[in-house]
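HUMAN:
Sorry, I am quite new to this. Are you able to go through these amino acid letters and fold codes? The numbers rather puzzle me.
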Amino acid sequence: MTDHPEQNVNVKKAGGWPLSGAWAIGTLLGIRILFAGWSLIILGSVVRSLPERA
């Protein structure tokens, strides 16, 4: 059984991927939640400013 350095490099690169990708997923999720919150605030202020029906 021979040791191939190329395989070791690939394993090291793939081994760090889940942790390095977690911040990207968290950032995108945080931005989505932030925009959803602002959308609800704006929608609420628009609905509140509408005249009441008699």
Remarks:
- The radius of gyration is 24 Å.
- Helices lie at 5-15, 17-49.
